[in-house]
UniProtKB/TrEMBL annotation, chain A:
Part of the binding-protein-dependent transport system for phosphate; probably responsible for the translocation of the substrate across the membrane. Residues 83-293 form the ABC transmembrane type-1 domain. The lineage of its organism: Bacteria, Bacillati, Bacillota, Bacilli, Lactobacillales. The chain crosses the membrane at residues 21-43, 83-111, 123-144, 156-178, 206-227, 274-292. One of its GO terms (biological process) is phosphate ion transport. The gene is pstC. Gene3D superfamilies: MetI-like (1.10.3720.10). It comes from Pediococcus pentosaceus. It comes from the Bacteria. GO terms for molecular function: phosphate transmembrane transporter activity. This is Phosphate transport system permease protein. Belongs to the binding-protein-dependent transport system permease family. CysTW subfamily.
UniProtKB/TrEMBL annotation, chain B:
This is Phosphate-binding protein. It is a lipid-anchor. Residues 26-257 form the PBP domain. PROSITE patterns: PROKAR_LIPOPROTEIN. One of its GO terms (cellular component) is plasma membrane. InterPro entries: PBP_domain, Phos-bd, Phosphate_ABC_transporter.
């Protein structure tokens, strides 16, 4: 009897395996959580130090236009030009990329058929893998002179930044939209065609309508990428912390000021803390983008 | 199947352990020298370190960028052996200069540069100041064609900007203009942008951009050595007062005649041995007594 009892109460091999797997994944998740939390803590505490330790005004930070945190005796931390610059390049590049991404995605899913997709898919994915410094360099040597001759100014500015970011976010938006187009049920298409609609009518009356939540999610993901991009933008935007009055005068973004300044400052001083405040704004914005995609995702049709 | 899984898990555990312990064992090794900081000085130190390690195989030298501020704060914390900097520790916010020891390893000269099509060879110091403070905005005002001046400044807080503003602006606020953070980028932009002006280290001069003389003085090593050319600064290597023997030996090597005579001038810097004046941390220029030659 005892032997049977022992046999039954003993953990089986499978259940031990089960536990081990659980433990390992728990450990991994804990590690990741720890990393994320410590990064959040670091950015938040450093970013808020500007206002609480160095006693800079939070209102000035968002409304003033002069950025000179190492000025003496009165440091100036007006981040408005950078915030405006970041939003401008992000929104403009997303607006520019959206039609191209929609067209490419529809072509890949509904028009080109299998062979077209086989060729286009790697091309689009290849664009993601190119390092951003390459985009920046091409921007500096091709896009900036182009902008200068066509639109005037020095060539450095929001417009050049928009062009470079357009190429960078295009693959993200396209491949995400391709996925959501694929998710549109096949019987939507069949039903539409059966009703006598042409292919074009089916595409813009049924398929695009049905995939709008997916499209918005894709665009917001693209915007999140554009908002956080540092190196490529920094090389073409001119990095002047001036409130941009037009698209062809030098401007700056949160990321471009961060990358140029962080190496020249010392941890714990105001110039450094002020940069962390910019990073905090970036972090909060990516949080907003994230929440937006969730919100839209919930509203999705399927 | 199960065995494979175990193998993978074990291997990844080992890998994580190795990564985690990797940094630890390295810094506790006696003969390793970690150098972090100024990107302007980085190429010189990298070359010197490579040459040095050929002869001293027991020493392991790692050279990294990160910027002057990073270099200074890391060496102050004792996280690295040497912190490279373009600026005096005294002039960097948040650094206690008493906690670190200064080793000047090279002198770097800087000069205003303009786009090739600007027909000006010489500029007065007063006019240069007016350009960079935004009081002169057209080349016409300096005897050139009717063309807007495009000012390209350097990143706030960078060593080269501090040196330039110390000599040229003399405390006046700089014009709010484009900022670029590396010599290479500035070189490319000035080359390509009509009517642009910026400033560069001597080693970045080339045929496609034009450097300006100031008040008739040409920017070259000879004029820096006797301070007739005023825009120059030191490249510093900072250590802790109780630095390891390996660290001190490498610094000694950097200052040796061999490095100063060959490598330093090859890379466009000026040897510290050739200087006939000295710049102090409070911006005074004093002649060196009994300067050689």
């Amino acid at each position: 009897m005892d032997a049977v009892k022992k046999e039954l109460t003993r953990k089986s091999k499978a259940s031990r395996q089960d536990q081990r797997g659980k433990l390992i994944s728990l450990a991994c998740v804990t590690l990741i959580m720890l990393v994320v939390l410590s990064i959040l803590y670091m950015i938040t505490s450093k970013g808020l130090a500007t206002f609480f330790e160095n006693k800079m005004s939070i209102v000035d930070f968002f409304t003033k236009q002069v950025w000179n945190p190492s000025a003496k005796p009165q440091a100036l931390v007006g981040a408005l030009p950078m915030i405006v610059g970041s939003f401008s390049v992000t929104v403009l590049s997303a607006l520019l990329a959206a039609p191209f991404a929609i067209a490419t995605a529809i072509f890949m899913v509904d028009i080109a058929g299998k062979r077209g997709r086989k060729i286009l898919q790697p091309v689009i994915e290849l664009l993601v893998g190119i390092p951003s410094v390459v985009y920046g360099f091409i921007g500096l040597t091709v896009v900036v002179p182009f902008t200068r001759t066509v639109f005037g100014g020095t060539g450095f500015g929001i417009l050049s930044g928009t062009f470079v970011l357009f190429v960078m976010v295009l693959p993200t938006v396209t491949s995400m939209y391709v996925d959501s187009l694929k998710a549109v049920p096949q019987f939507y298409r069949e039903a539409s065609l059966a009703l006598g609609a042409t292919r074009w009518q089916t595409i813009y009356k049924v398929i695009i309508r049905a995939s709008i939540p997916g499209l918005l999610t894709a665009i917001i993901f693209g915007m999140a990428r554009a908002f956080g991009e540092a190196l490529a933008v920094q090389m073409v935007i001119g990095n002047a912390s001036i409130l941009p009055s037009d698209l062809v005068s030098p401007a700056s973004t949160l990321t471009s000021v961060l990358t140029t300044g962080i190496g020249n400052t010392v941890l714990g001083t105001l110039p450094n803390n002020a940069l962390w405040s910019l990073a905090l704004v970036l972090l909060l914005m990516s949080l907003v983008f994230n929440l937006l995609t969730r919100f839209i995702g919930k509203k999705g049709a399927f | 199947m199960k065995k494979v899984n175990k193998g993978i898990i074990l291997a990844s555990m080992m890998a994580i352990l190795l990564i985690l312990t990797g940094c630890q064992s390295k810094s506790s090794q006696k003969n390793s020298v970690t150098i972090v900081g100024s990107t302007a000085l980085q190429p010189l130190v990298e070359k010197a370190a490579a040459d040095y390690q050929v002869k001293n195989s027991g020493v392991d030298i790692t050279v990294q960028g990160g910027g002057s501020g990073t270099g200074l704060s890391q060496v102050q914390q004792g996280a690295v052996s040497i912190g490279n900097s373009d600026v005096f520790a005294e002039q960097q916010d948040g650094i206690d200069a008493k906690k670190v020891v200064d080793h000047k390893v090279a002198v770097v000269g800087m000069a205003p540069v303009v786009n090739q099509d600007v027909p000006i060879k010489n500029i007065s110091m007063a006019n240069l100041r007016k350009v960079f403070t935004g009081k002169i905005t057209n080349w016409k005002q300096l005897g050139g064609p009717d063309q807007k001046i495009v000012v390209i400044n350097r990143a706030q807080g960078s060593g080269i900007r501090k040196s330039f503003e110390r000599v040229v602006l003399k405390g006046q606020p700089a014009l709010n203009a484009q900022e670029q953070d590396s010599n290479g980028t500035v070189q490319k932009i000035v080359q390509a942008t009509p009517g642009s002006i910026s400033y560069l280290s001597f080693s970045y001069f080339n045929n496609q951009i034009k450097h300006l003389a100031i008040d008739g003085v040409q920017p070259n090593a000879k004029n820096v050595e006797n301070n007739r050319w005023k825009i120059w600064s030191y490249e510093h290597m900072y250590t802790k007062p109780n630095a390891s023997a390996a660290t001190n030996n490498f610094i000694k090597y950097m200052k040796s005649e061999k490095v100063q005579k060959n490598l330093v001038s090859d890379l466009g810097y000026i040897s510290i041995h050739d200087m006939k004046v000295e710049l102090t941390s409070d911006d005074q220029v004093i002649p060196i007594k009994g300067a050689e030659e």
